[in-house]
Design a protein that fits this description.
With 213 residues, the chain is α+β, with helices and mostly antiparallel strands. The chain has three helices and 15 strands. It has one domain: outer membrane lipoprotein receptor (LolB), chain A. 15% of the residues lie in helices and 49% in strands.
Length: 213
């Protein structure tokens, strides 16, 4: 009887793991990074070169498809605002009273792309598959579901217990690594949410996002 129960338990455990799909893992990871459909945050982008100024943005989202980004600092860039609707994006330059069409993968500041802070949800935009699993983490390989998104492919490592995104690789269509973001907890919010600092690692450069609120 003990042997039979042990076998049944083992089979149940295997089935339970099989039921955790790549889509579910990505959805739960997204829920931690973006706990609400609409939210407001202040984003600081800091360069590893201390001589370069910190760029600060006021970001407001309405659902997944609409984001307004207002530049707060440096003062020379104040008044440069970005509006995203679906995958379409426009830059408004107040001093010139001019609107310019932009794309998600174009540069916001330094090596930071517009889509890095304007379109932060991945679920629905990318088709995930489980590339590997360790005792503590899943690794997902995600492919863009359509043209116009920020990255062609993303490799994402997710904590197996909490579903918190740990680190990632943003990839080109050929698989070349463009950026390596690490998601670092800087302080906790009411469970299950956390406040994250996003640190981009790139050749000879480093960018740090601080999501202040």
């Amino acid at each position: 009887m003990f042997y039979l129960l042990l076998v049944l338990f083992s089979l149940f455990s295997i089935d339970s793991y099989a039921e955790t799909s790549a889509d579910e893992i990505l959805r739960k990871a997204d829920d931690i990074r973006n706990p609400l459909d609409s939210f407001h945050m202040i984003v600081d982008v800091t360069d590893s070169d201390a001589s370069k100024p910190v760029s600060t943005f006021d970001v407001k989202t309405q659902g997944k498809e609409r984001t307004l980004i207002k530049t707060i600092a440096p003062s020379r860039d104040k008044g440069r605002n970005l509006l995203m609707i679906d995958e379409n994006m426009w830059l408004y330059i107040k001093n010139l009273d001019q609107t310019v069409r932009m794309s998600l993968n174009q540069k916001l500041t330094g090596q930071t792309a517009n889509g890095d802070i304007s379109r932060m949800k991945w679920h629905g935009d990318y088709n995930p598959q489980i590339e590997s699993k360790s005792a503590t983490e899943w690794t997902l390989l995600m492919t863009a579901s359509r043209k116009g998104l920020t990255y062609e492919k993303i490799r994402l490592v997710v904590d197996e217990k909490t579903f918190r995104p740990m680190r990632a690789e943003y990839l080109s269509l050929s698989g070349e690594t463009l950026k390596k973001p690490n998601f670092l907890v800087i302080n906790k919010l009411p469970e299950p949410f956390v406040r994250l600092k996003l640190k981009f690692l790139m050749p000879n450069q480093q960018k740090i996002f601080r999501l202040l609120q």
